[in-house]
Model the fold of this input.
Amino acid sequence: MCHDDAGPLEDVEHPIPRIDTLDTELTTERGAYIGMVIATPLKDDAISRARLQRKFEVYLSYFASREYRERCGPPLPDRSKIYLNIHASSDQSMIQLVESYMAQLPDNGITPVMKLIHGN
Done:
């Protein structure tokens, strides 16, 4: 099954292997800390851009969901965070795209935390 221009929901060969799930999740009664991991270099191509956008949409929709808001209320920066680790050898344009997505999170009550990681 394909998902728009992002390719299939699961593609184990891609640096973003699943676009429909949270990579990591820690919830409390007051909020959540969720994480995204891009462990291999992300290339600048149409599929990677689409997969990255779709992944961010999934993460934002988590905080906007009725279930989250009933349990925790609206997202607040001290209790709603997205941690993103991206491989340092990713194309610079993709790192900049990630940074632009992360820069929009505070407008949604979410604290962004980004880290470049080095692989083997």
Observations:
- Residues 4-117 form a domain with the Trna Endonuclease; Chain: A, domain 1 fold (CATH 3.40.1350).
- The longest strand covers residues 80-87.
- The chain has a mean pLDDT of 93.
- The longest helix spans residues 46-64.
